[in-house]
Amino acid sequence: MKKMKRIVLTVTILALFITGCATENNNEIVVVSREEGSGTRGAFIELFGIEEKDSNGNKVDKTTDEATVVNSTSVVMTTVAGNKNSIGYISLGSLNDTVKAVKVDGVEPTVENIKNNTYKVFRPFIIATKENPGELTQDFISFILSSDGQKVVEENSYIAASEKGPYSSTKPSGKIVIAGSSSVTPLMEKLKEAYLKVNTNAEIEIQASDSTTGMKLAMEGTCDIGMASRELKESELKKLKPTVIAMDGLVVIVNKENPVSNLTSDQIKGIFKGEITSWNEVAK
């Protein structure tokens, strides 16, 4: 009986060893993508050529069906931080030390490199309203575009989109609701915080979702301001007035244990289309 126990124990240890080796040598890429309707996803697939036209001229998203799809920037980072073989994409302004940003075509994703046009993966942050927004809505937009608001933009690792002068106002009262892109939301929270310090008569509610939902709610009048991290569609432009409030880099991120530090645009495209499936294919 003791001999049998030793045999079972030995086999168990051997199985665990083999499993551990298999896990250690498993370099299959785990693609993490945003959900459909996300402005970040829309911008990413367009910038990297993952969106292609079919025979009828319609745009088709070729993101691999094997991708893990999540619904916010924070979940992308959490997912990538928790899986050493994963890769995803987020807003530059949301990047933190839980994940690693890779260079694209040898260029580091920084505000300075976007400004000097060496890092070419960036998109606009847009807010949208109906043609004649209310007094408080317009005042908040004026603050965002003022030098005071744009200072907040730059302090949070985004790129200013306006060169207007200092904010001045009669400080109207009331409440506004802002809804949409979860990528724009962190910046909007900072702008809200700064604005409420200079206009204590205002109340602002921010609802994070995605760009498409934000535009839909703005068109319906359910919210006063919609947020989008992509250009507006023709159907949205017919009903909404867009305003660019900042420019933001898109960052390709991997797990901090991943030795890969640079990917070409073609490699990124191949990974997210499911044509490159192992880190061994891109490792240097």
TrEMBL record:
Topology with respect to the bilayer: Lipid-anchor
GO CC annotations on file: plasma membrane
Localisation: Cell membrane
Bilayer-spanning residue ranges: none
PROSITE patterns listed in its UniProt record: PROKAR_LIPOPROTEIN
Signal peptide range in chain numbering: 1-24
Residue span, PBP domain: 25-147, 167-281
Entry annotated with the keyword Nuclease: no
Record bears the keyword Acetylation: no
SUPFAM superfamilies given in the database record: Periplasmic binding protein-like II
GO terms under biological process: phosphate ion transport
Keywords, alphabetical: Lipoprotein, Palmitate, Phosphate transport, Signal, Transport
Family: Belongs to the PstS family.
Subunit structure: The complex is composed of two ATP-binding proteins (PstB), two transmembrane proteins (PstC and PstA) and a solute-binding protein (PstS).
Function: Part of the ABC transporter complex PstSACB involved in phosphate import.
Record's protein name: ABC-type phosphate transport system periplasmic component-like protein
